[in-house]
Amino acid sequence: MNVSWVLAWRNIWRHRRRTWLTVGAMVFCNVLLVFLVSLQLGSYQMMIDGSLAAYTGHIQVQRRGYHDDQHIYQSVPAVMELASSLRSVPGVGEVAARAEAFALASSAQRSFGILLTGVQPGYEPAVSTFPGKVREGRYLQADDAREIVIGALLAQNLKAGVGDELTFIGSGRDGSFAAAVATVVGILDTGLEEVDRSMAQIPLGWFQQVFAMGDAGHSVVIRVPSLEQVGDTAAGLRAALAGRNELVVLDWERLMPGLRQAITSDMASAWFTYGVLVLLVAFSVLNTQLMSVLERTREFGVMLALGMRPAQLARLVGMETLMLAALGLGLGVAGGGLLAAYLSYAGFVYPGVEEMMARFMLGGRIYPQLSPVSLLAGPLTVFLGALLAALYPALRLFRLQPVAAMRAL
Amino acid sequence: MSDISCRDLCKTFHQGGDTITALDRVCLEIEEGEFVCLSGPSGSGKTTLLNALGGLDTPDSGEIAIGEHRLDGMSRAELADMRLRHIGFVFQSYNLITVLTARENVEFIMQVQGVPARERTRLASGVLAEVGLAGLENRRPAELSGGQQQRVAVARAIATRPALVLADEPTANLDSRSAAQLMDLFVSLNRERGVTFVISTHDARVMRYARRLIGMRDGRIVSDERQQPIAMDI
Ligand SMILES: Nc1ncnc2c1ncn2[C@@H]1O[C@H](COP(=O)(O)OP(=O)(O)OP(=O)(O)O)[C@@H](O)[C@H]1O
Ligand SMILES: [Mg+2]
Q1: The dihedral of CA B133, B135, B139, B145: what is its sign?
Q2: Judgement on whether residues A33 and A70 belong to the same structural domain of the protein
Q3: Who contacts A258 (Cβ-Cβ below 8 Å, separation ≥6)?
Q4: Measured between alpha carbons, how far is B186 from B164 in angstroms, rounded to an integer?
Q5: Are residues A279 and A395 in the same domain?
Q6: A33 shares a domain with A104
Q7: Which helix (H) or strand (E) segment is B210 a member of?
Q8: Ligand 1: which of B48, B49, B207 to mutate, judged by most atoms within 8 Å of the beta carbon?
Q9: Which has the closest alpha carbon to A157: A233, A106, A227, A225?
């Protein structure tokens, strides 16, 4: 039997209530950290998934330079054939080709600038949630029909409804004048104001005719089954397109840099909060261990007199702190893990952020994401913080002289 | 090993402008196996002398040697090692670890000394039986009488087989019967194991056990007599 561990264990229970208060603070902090980090990672995941699912996709293949400078002539040749061929790249999920142009749309009464997208009606619904947001009428069907679907606010502004005709005017790839008349077949209500005010989609085949694109387009949009596969799939795509230097494979972080930035800045402010929390707990441990060392001065004096070294006393205090911290860690991880696991299954309503959630295409419930990181990162930091906090009381023992310590009250 | 010799030990304390001379050029020789009592009025320097002999405190000047070990000039760590391996201490009171049982108190110091775990339990039981505590090994100090607690302290002090035991007023908090039993224990350990004892006391009944009685006053040794220990039943 190792008496040191027995001694350390009994020492921490000399003051039951004080020990439980300290452990309780650690457990509370750990549960909170597990919950908050899970919630945070879960909402990032949902934010990314929601944002990318709406329109952008996980990966796009474009002409080199198009992403930074969206000129209609920066096009991808034979875009539909390229899309078909990319479907066979391993890991690639859904693929659809697109073309885009700015245009002026006019109804009988009014005109508005729009972002007109040529889409493949058969494939677009698999890479974007917009086709599913038809509020009135239907989505596009035939590849070359002279049909258009428009955003709800745009429809309102143009005073156009399903069945009405719209004229749009723009310039073709070769700089020529491009104009056509399309019948509105559907009104989309995505819930995103900017999109609903300016979006219009027509079939890609017809888009190519009107804008003198030939067989070209601007992007091939790719969705993979899960976010973790983006890296591998992008690498596979780059390998498949190795000979075609004019094309680039862009992943979502390049396509939507704002998303990563929003997450990074949100994380920075969250880390600050967590840091304060950990610091508070560390101070509570410091206080407890300092008191426990001070009130045992006499006993430590006797131990020193018997020939123990200050380092051995410090190790004893370290062992006691280790036990306290391990209790906090175990109970905190268990409690926080159960809470986060339950919420990751049942979901969780976060009042007051509906607007932000809508912006990132999220539903009303947040599902925290329980992972080794969200479960352990916080509690392990608290654990280390507690051990560090015990350094000061432990180091004080090195100043203790046996005779003076035994004379202490 | 346990021959103690000190020469010209001086120790002063400074307290609020006053200088207190606790030891004033003390010279002393104690031979192995002696049973010595230090007596003297309060403040005469008994504790200060014991602390110096045990390497708990360093004198301002003078020489101390225990066997071939010179204590003056030793570092803190060397002194701690000296105490751990060669000297047993029994203090007036409050000197057990309250959360450990009698056996664990004894085992703990053995563990610090590096006695292997398997031997510790056996040795601890043996020493506790030797001091008359068989059957009480698993009690904590709060569950023992003052006399029994002091016996645990004695068991702890001799567990590591030191050649020298220093006891500072070990009977001060004991009733006369417990005090007599503790002194009997000291005497028998002195006789059977040859352990050298130096015991400080105010108590005339304790002094009767000593074969050598050293009197102190104002930091000086004022008397040093050999006597026939009366309280011994041999
Ligand atoms: N740490 C200290 N600081 C100041 N003075 C001290 C200290 N230790 C001892 N003294 C003084 O030194 C002198 C000798 O003290 P010491 O404790 O050795 O006496 P003692 O003979 O053991 O007395 P008692 O019988 O009361 O235990 C006393 O005057 C005491 O006040
Ligand atoms: Mg004294």
Answers
A1: negative
A2: no
A3: none
A4: 12
A5: yes
A6: no
A7: none
A8: B48
A9: A106
Residues A43 and A94 in one domain: no
**Mean of pLDDT values over A176-189:** 94
> B46, B50, B51, B173: which to mutate for ligand 1, most atoms within 8 A of CB?
B46
Q: Quick check: is A232 in a domain? A: no
pLDDT tens-digit series, residues B218-231: 999 999 998 887 65
Strand arrangement, sheet containing B35-39? B87-90, B164-168, B196-201, B35-39, B212-217, B220-226
Query: Predicted confidence band at B234 (pLDDT cuts at 50, 70, 90)?
Result: very low
The total number of structural domains in chain A stands at 2
**CA A35 to CA A39: how far, in whole Å?**
6
Give the pLDDT confidence score for residue A362 in this predicted structure.
Answer: 59
**Minimal CA separation from B233 to chain A, in Å:** 32
Task: Let me know: does B196 contact B32? Beta carbons within 8 Å.
Answer: yes
| Alpha carbon distance A73, A175 (integer Å) | 9
> Residue A230 falls within a domain, yes or no?
no
CB pair distance less than 8 Å for A6 and B121? no
What pLDDT, in 10s, does the model give residues A191-250? 888 999 999 999 999 999 999 999 999 999 999 988 888 999 999 999 999 989 999 999
Write phi, then psi, for B9 (nearest 5 degrees). Answer: -70, 130
Instruction: Verify that A8 and A153 share a domain, yes or no.
Output: no
Tokens of B48: 């200060």
Query: What average pLDDT does the segment A3-13 reach?
Result: 92
**pLDDT score of A409 more than 80:** no
Give the residue from A223, A244, A268 where a domain finishes. Answer: A223
Q: Per-residue pLDDT tens for A88-138?
A: 888 888 999 999 999 999 998 899 999 999 999 999 999 999 999 999 999
Nearest-Cα distance to chain B for A403, in Å, is 6
pLDDT tens for residues B48-63? Answer: 999 999 999 999 999 9
Put simply, the answer to whether A305 touches B109 (Cβ < 8 Å) is no
Instruction: Collapse the DSSP code of A401 into the 3-class scheme (helix H, G, I; strand E, B; otherwise coil) and give the result.
Output: coil
The per-residue pLDDT for A51 is 85
Task: Establish if A228 belongs to a structural domain.
Answer: no
ipTM metric: 0.92
Please report the pLDDT score of residue A364 as a whole number: 67
C-beta atoms of B80 and A304 within 8 A: yes
- Tell me, yes or no, whether A285 and A204 share the same domain: no
Nearest-5° angle of CA B135, CA B136, CA B137? 95
Residues A125 and A208 placed together within one structural domain of the fold: yes
Assess if residue A237 is contained within a domain: no
Domain range for residue A16? 3-52+259-407
- 8 Å CB contact between A154 and A105: yes
Tokens describing residue B21: 């001379």
> Residues of A101-129 as b/e, b for ≥16 C-beta within 10 angstroms?
bebebbbeeeebebbbbbbbbebbbebbe
**Of the candidates A198, A223, A248, which is a domain's last residue?**
A223
**3-class SS of residue A222:** strand
The verdict on A209 and A145 lying in the same domain is yes
3-state SS, residue A71: coil
